[in-house]
Amino acid sequence: MIRTGLLSATLLLLAVAAPAAERKLGKPLSGGTPVTLQALYTDADSKVGKTVQVKGKVVEVCEMAGCWMNLTDDKGNMLRIKVEDGVIEFPKDSVGKTAIAEGILEKRQMTRDQLIEQAKEEAQESGRKFNPASIKSGKTVYQIAGTGAAILD
After folding, report:
1. DSSP characters over 36-91
2. Can you give the pLDDT at residue 21?
3. How far, in Å, CA of 80 to CA of 144, rounded?
4. 31, 79, 87, 113: least buried by Cβ within 10 Å?
5. Per the domain annotation, does 13 fall within a domain?
6. What residue numbers bound the domain in which 33 lies?
7. Euclidean distance between CA atoms 83 and 90, whole angstroms
8. Is the residue at 83 inside a domain?
């Protein structure tokens, strides 16, 4: 009886101490240390065209094909990780979980009309309403052309 209890306690401790599981998607991550979104945005222009690895909370995933996911941090920064359709499919149940993503940082200057078109498409895909008046002007948008990711459970 004591041995069974000791074994159960040992197994419970191992389960609690075990690292969180992760789902690996796409190419393996380079093994570097991921940066926060805040750190990335501090000097994003110098990182455009380079491979970056970021860590953040998944707040949205493409409902149609899982071809993009949006990450955020506690400072309100957001970054989209976009992949070619069919190359990686970000799981829809990733929302609320932490992710590490890697790829080439891209910078795009988007007009108000382009932003409205993009937001309209995303709203339609996710079944939510969109008001074009909510977009006042164009803006610079950064995103990662994703090559690999890990979703931490």
Report:
1. EHHHHHHTGGGGTTSEEEEEEEEEEE-TTT--EEEEE-TTS-EEEEE--TTT----
2. 78
3. 6
4. 31
5. no
6. 20-152
7. 9
8. yes
Q: Quick check: is 14 in a domain? A: no
Q: Does residue 8 lie within any of the structural domains?
A: no
Q: What CA dihedral angle connects 51, 59, 86 and 41, to 10 degrees?
A: -20
Q: Report the pLDDT value the prediction gives residue 6, as an integer from 0 to 100.
A: 40
Give the mean pLDDT per block of 10 residues along the chain (153 residues): 43 42 92 94 96 96 89 95 91 96 97 93 82 94 96 90
- The CATH number of residue 115's host domain is 2.40.50.200
Looking at the 3D structure of the chain, how many domains does it have?
1
Those residues whose C-beta lies under 8 Å from the C-beta of residue 141, and which sit 6 or more positions away, are 80, 107, 108, 109, 110, 115
Instruction: Classify 32 in phi/psi space as left (phi over 0), alpha (psi -120 to 50) or beta.
Output: beta
Q: Quote the pLDDT of residue 3.
A: 47
- Report pTM: 0.79
**Left, alpha or beta for 66 (phi > 0: left; psi -120 to 50: alpha)?**
left
Could you give the CA distance from residue 130 to residue 20 in angstroms, rounded to a whole number?
A: 37
pLDDT of residue 20: 56
